[in-house]
Amino acid sequence: MTIEKTEERLSFQAEVTKLLDIVVHSLYSDRQIFLRELISNASDACDKLRYEALTNPGLREDAGAFRITLRVDAEARTIEVADNGIGMNRDELIDNLGTIARSGTEAFMQQLAASDRKGDASLIGQFGVGFYSSFMVAERVEVFSRRAGEPQGWHWASDGGGAFTIGEAEVAQPGTRIVLHLREDAKEFLETWRLTSTVKTYSDHIAIPVVLLGTDDEGQPTEETLNAASALWTRPRSEITDEQYKEFYHHVAHAFDDPWHTLHFKAEGAIEYTGLLFIPSQKPFDLFQPERKTHVKLYVNRVFITDDAPDVLPSYLRFVRGIVDSSDLPLNVSREMLQHNPVLRKIQGGLVKRLLGDLKKRAEAADDYATFWEAFGPVLKEGIYEDFERRSDLLELARFRSSTTEGWVSLADYAARMKTGQEAIYYITGDDPEVLKRSPQLEGFRAKGVEVLLLTDPVDEFWINAVPSYQDTPLKSAAAGATGLEAVTDAEAETEAAPKDETAPADQIEALTTALKAALGDAVKEVRPSSRLKESAVCLVSEEGDMSLHLERMLKQAGQDMGRKSTRIMEVNPSHPLIKGMAARAAAGGGDTAEHMADLAQLLLDQALIVEGEAPSDPVAFARRLSAVMAGTV
Ligand SMILES: Nc1ncnc2c1ncn2[C@@H]1O[C@H](COP(=O)(O)OP(=O)(O)OP(=O)(O)O)[C@@H](O)[C@H]1O
């Protein structure tokens, strides 16, 4: 192998330099993971070539079976990890090994910056740093690589400082060979037993043989395959340990947490396929990216096809990681053919059924399920809106915060403890459960001890409108339309309740609501007496079927309110002293000048807005009016 003299020296992306500085200087524990990372990359590279060769068989000419080889040179203090996979050309070497494209590493850097725990080794265990972990054990790393289908080989080298060199090199075979020049303090990895046990622990699940090359006492070459070298999912469940599942999950998901749930099965029947799926315990970083991409890898007869097939799982299960392997798809299936493929649709149906079935079982252990729900509930809820067929299963799996109980509540829990005469499951949407709990719209519900579900995920605004009822009980907003609370009887709450507050006479209230509406104009759709207020003077509600206040606010924040006319209704509390006083004056006529009434009306609306978490429409005018009113009282 010759390396040309004309090597170019290039700088790492600034983030890589920072990352390498941490890797080189601060990380001493779990250093053996470098081997897992390099073997994992080598295995991915073989998968990629196997797939490309399906449509371009020339790429695999003369290449023997796929394998990953390890070689140790104790004298030179080097370890080599080589593969006959896809390889990299100059640009790929620069891009892949000189910048950080991986969301995991980026997140690692962000977390590190945020936590100020520089050099915290536990963080690296959580994220992994892929190829760069080589520098945990090596003072210098060389990469010899040749892209399959290209004649030119390349040599990349770095000592983990701010720069690397790259130049042409003669590389006999397509693939990648990584040479680690070990640091003095990492000599332990020159021991064969150390390498062997590390491979067995971390890379046994790799489907390609990992072969240790050596020489025997007579100087003859030896080969020892260190891993089981069969795809993990093809082995019987009884022969796979939790540890092996976990390592496979790390490999396939590029993740470093433990799986919260593992589902391994073989479906037999009209369509045969094997699934090995994992639900992570920690949120992956791309969960809320707009593409909503799913991440299950598709194999056909153990040949990797794609991790980008849109129909393997629906988007609302995009937190699931793992593989599906089917012999009922053609091996030369192109990614385009996978769109709307009937076999794949059936497989998807089977996977969703099993996953939701497993979730249902695990939901029986409430605390354990809560950890899942907190991480992935907002994503799963998208399915209530999108997957009509599974809507009722998903509704059973959904959990909510509630106005009357701590922790998570299911619709079934709620339905079981509804009050006599209560005809709907009530909910309210907003940003913060604690603020929602105290909102004036819920005062009447509190007084009657009626539970209200607090929906605080943005997605709630969408599915809730698509779901009219749960098991024939209507779902109803506590902040829209009439409450229906009159029919609810609650023995406990009734006896404890204070004597009914006297309300202003209906004609006075009517005079007041007419005057307020006249003063406020289009700022509100209607002003009316409230049956839901107990302590507050006013609140805002919407009409049933209209956009909720929270959604209106969300759209406004996203710059999408498009000058829509407000659909808000201002409700006044006929038993509140302020409203009673105003109503009496409004009915008497001439009690308040039009100007004064306008100020009071605006102040009422502004305070209702503030309670909703919004700013008054004109803060300066608000302050002026408030001061004027206060001046009247001092
Ligand atoms: N042996 C290899 N053959 C071909 N390409 C490789 C090889 N090793 C690394 N690469 C390329 O370099 C990229 C960066 O590797 P790195 O290990 O840093 O991150 P990753 O593989 O994307 O993520 P992770 O290590 O978490 O699996 C890979 O995505 C791949 O494109």
UniProtKB/TrEMBL annotation:
Pfam families membership: HATPase_c_3 (PF13589), HSP90 (PF00183)
InterPro entries: HATPase_C_sf, HATPase_dom, HSP90_C, Hsp90_fam, Hsp90_N, Ribosomal_Su5_D2-typ_SF
Assigned keywords, A-Z: ATP-binding, Chaperone, Cytoplasm, Nucleotide-binding, Stress response
Region of interest: C: 554-634
Family (UniProt): Belongs to the heat shock protein 90 family.
Function: Molecular chaperone. Has ATPase activity.
Descriptive protein name: Chaperone protein HtpG
Organism classification: Bacteria, Pseudomonadati, Pseudomonadota, Alphaproteobacteria, Rhodospirillales
Gene encoding the protein: htpG
